[in-house]
Amino acid sequence: MHAGYFSYHRIHRIVARRSECVGLFQFRTCFYCTKVGFVAKRLPCEPTSRFYGYPFVYIRFIACLSYSSERNFSPGSRSSSDSSVHIVERDDFDEGKVDYGEFGEMGVKVFGELSSFGDNTGGCQETQSLNFGGFDEFEEEEGENCCGSDSDDDNDFAALNSYNVQCVRTDDVWKIELEENEFRHPLVREICRLIQLRSSWNPKLESDMRHLLRSLKPRHVCAVLLSQDDERVALQFFYWADRQWRYRHNAIVYYAMLEILSKTKLCQGARRVLRLMARRGIQCRPEAFGYLMVSYSRAGNLRNALKVLTLIQKAGVELNLALCNTAIHVLVMANRLEKALRFFERMQIVGIFPNVVTYNCLIKGYCNLNQVENALQLIADMSSKNCSPDKVSYYTIMSFFCKEKQVKEVRDLMEKMVKESNLFPDMVTYNTLIHMLSKNGHADEALEFLREAEARGFQIDKVGHSAIVHSYCKQGKIDEAKSIVNEMLSKGCNPDVVTYTAVVDGFCRVGKVDQAKKMLQHMYKHDCKPNTVSYTALLTGLCRSGNSLQAREMMNGSEEEFWTPNAITYSAVMHGLRKEGKLSEACDVAKKMISKGFFPNPVEINLIIESLCREGKMDEAKRFLEECLNKGCAVNVVNFTTLIHGYCRKGDLEAALSLLDDMYLSNKHPDAVTYTAIIDALGKNGRIEEATDLTMKMLKKGLLPTPVTYRTVIHRYCQMGRVEDLLKLLEKMLPRQKCKTVYNQVIEKLCSFGNLEEADKLLSRVLKTASRNDANTCNMLMERYLSKEMPLSAYKVACRMFNRNLIPDLKLSEKVSKRLMLEGKSAEADNLMLRFVERGHLSPQGE
């Protein structure tokens, strides 16, 4: 068959009469998809085919034939308005739009809709007619500020009005439980390995990945998604797999992806996955919308979380109790308890009756707002609602009492739990109380419950004992902690490394480092080998007590003790040496830390640089910064600024300017603080022209001057008497960043330097706003005039203040009046006091 490039229109007409074209296209062709197009390979069994040169016609035919097959074999599954769903969905979910670039170059991008060629879904795709307009409308509102914009009306509960009480409701959830062997499956492990190599992918690795993907069962795909440490990587793999030819996600994969995203703040990704489910014809159950709602809640978007209910109504999905519980949980976590209670009442009106999970969410909300009485009342009301409270209901209130150290109330609640609900305290109850009390620093009360549990025949494990030991150590009660350890040994409940480490850290906190060392030896005697955390606690104690050199020696000899220092260990020793002034040793530890693959963070780097600069060791500080930069440490602008400031304090401005240029070479762009440090140093050394040029350079780069920048420029220019140049510079700075008190600062600086004439010229600019700051500035100018024995000028300033409805300082004005009387200007003196009388600040008798 000879097919031209534009013959796909005829193919459409032929496919429309499918019965007439049986046997017309009896061929098989394999395609290898590239980013540019397709390369066809003719099989040996095929005759000479002209599709080798015109693959596009073949592609269009297969797409149309596939769609026609779906319409003929699945009647009613898609409406006529959704005929282009395969074409549109690829555009809507293109990874270039959602910024998942690492997987964006992989797989079929243009003709991914040909995945309908084969279906690996296992037949689990249930189609459902959903309203796509609901998704589009929901997407348009994403740009709104959804945090803290909650309204008091109940428009978000409109979905409850459409609830059909006669509808058959099921409580099953599309949630897959994977076994351990599925995570260890060879195909799953190989896929995960290839995903880790995604930064260095090539066509060979991608081809292997695509081949393995088609061999995976849906449960294995879920295992791959759940195995990723970063949820963003899991989402990238999900999108990439969805684009592959002859592959389509099973429904359980969508629900697994949504469940993963519900534990993160990636609400945009969750919304896109849910929208993709609708376009793929996957049945969107209420649980899918619940996952989206929780994700919005974690991201702090309460408004969009509640709008999911509206989206459910438009999609035609029936509400269930689980989704209502999710909505109440979202409201409680957002501290919208009143709205949660209104939702609670509305759901009962429409026929959705709460269960114990619903009540537990509300109990949690009451406890979060310290309304424990209402929480107790809610437990009392549950019995009348044919819903008995469980232990979680009581544990939630007990947790609140533990935080408030109300042990008596905890015991009363335990008795109530037994009498009214027939729930007896068990091992979980006592373990929960012990851990909650210990966590909140109430070790004595936790120990009482431990004794009570043992008296009732329960055996508290080493985890419960360790919690009490750790709590005692944090309080500095080492003797009590040590006695519990000895008690554990006598009971046969051998302490583990966590328990011993808590005691070691406790001894170090109170300065008993020798006792901490003995405890480490005690660990060896009881066949408990100290780990890195144990030694780090000891080294931290040594550094606190001023024995950082000894700590460094112990760290260097770690190989003999068969333990390996980590980043926290190196940081503790490094800062211990720095605090003791042993900066060279601290730098050596930092270099060794980098050589071991542990990079200090910018804060740690900055502390070392600042200490070296304070000691005047600028060259050593610069070498340390360069080495950190060359080794790949996270050096930031603050580190460069600290070093530049050190050079400026030392007076080496050439080195500071050179380092400023080096910042651009290192792709570390200086900020306003960096420029301000150099501008101040240039002005201090009289290089005011260079300071001006640098200020203009800062403005041209779009950096906004800070209040410190304004104070620096004003101080240096006023110090040199360059008032005109200062005003010109301020006129260029103010449009970039407003500063209401800029002219106040100029006048005050001029007054401090004795340039009262220039200060008086600028007084009109200050009096335009007539604020309290302006009054303080005028009072300062009056005081300076008075100190220069110029009372008449001070009087004129006071009059100008009265004209702007500003009241001068009364005591200062009285001094001005007396000085005017001495100089024979009684009219001005009387007029000044009369102004105060007119405004009610001075009585005539006082005058």
TrEMBL record:
Note the InterPro entries from the entry: PPR_P_subfamily, PPR_rpt, TPR-like_helical_dom_sf
Q: Which domain of life is it from?
A: Eukaryota
The PPR repeat units are at: 320-354, 355-389, 390-425, 426-460, 461-495, 496-530, 531-565, 566-600, 601-635, 636-670, 671-705, 706-736
Q: Mind listing the UniProt keywords for this protein, alphabetically?
A: Repeat
**Protein family:** Belongs to the PPR family. P subfamily.
Q: What is this protein called?
A: Pentatricopeptide repeat-containing protein
